[in-house]
């Protein structure tokens, strides 16, 4: 549009367009445009997919169950047991998921993190708290946290004590409890002429 009746050049039009464009974008929230589409979000989404398919080989990775959501929050440190508890995780999961659904999408997962970040990182701004939560999640993979470890207690310890073995089982171990290998499992041929297990073997020549 000419200013003061004077025609404007294409360069003027371009400059005005840029000015108007910058004015429009300056009022837009910075979080959705600059943060949620960053490379960090790609890493967070990768982590989401890895936990989403954990324990279910047929899962697509696009949806996550409440059990796996809880596992992810625990193993990544979002749930610390103090500021954010397992109850908080369950409440937020049910809040963000679609009514009647049993899983959440990645978009709903992002909403859940917005709900939790303020509790996990009190004192930080919403943007800083969300950034801190995603820092915890980025690059993580499901682990075997809480796996049962084998321990020798009670009856198990008695069953593994070789000094209490009897019969053929006793013959498989020496006095120190070390296995004899093949000699302890098979009857090796004895060509000495003596009856098996005869304790006087080799003493005849000494007496006669």
Brief descriptors of the model:
mainly alpha, 11 helices, two-stranded antiparallel sheet, rod-shaped, 208 residues
Account of the 3D structure:
With 208 residues, the protein is mostly helical. 50% of the residues lie in helices and 3% in strands. It is built from 11 helices and 2 strands; from the N terminus they run αααβααβαααααα. The chain has a two-stranded antiparallel ribbon. Helix 4 crosses helix 5, helix 5 packs antiparallel against helix 6 and helix 6 crosses helix 7. The longest helix is centred in the first third of the chain and has 17 residues, at 10-26. The protein starts with 9 loop residues before the first helix and ends with a helix.
Gross morphology is rod-shaped
Largest sheet: 2 strands, antiparallel
Count every helix, treating DSSP H or I runs of 4 or more residues as helices: 11
Class by alpha and beta content:
mainly alpha
Beta-strand share of residues:
under 5%
User: End-to-end span in angstroms?
Assistant: 134 Å
Task: Note the topology.
Elements: H1 10-26, H2 30-35, H3 39-52, E1 63-65, H4 66-76, H5 86-96, E2 103-105, H6 106-120, H7 126-137, H8 155-159, H9 167-170, H10 182-185, H11 204-207
Helix pairs in contact: 4-5, 5-6, 6-7
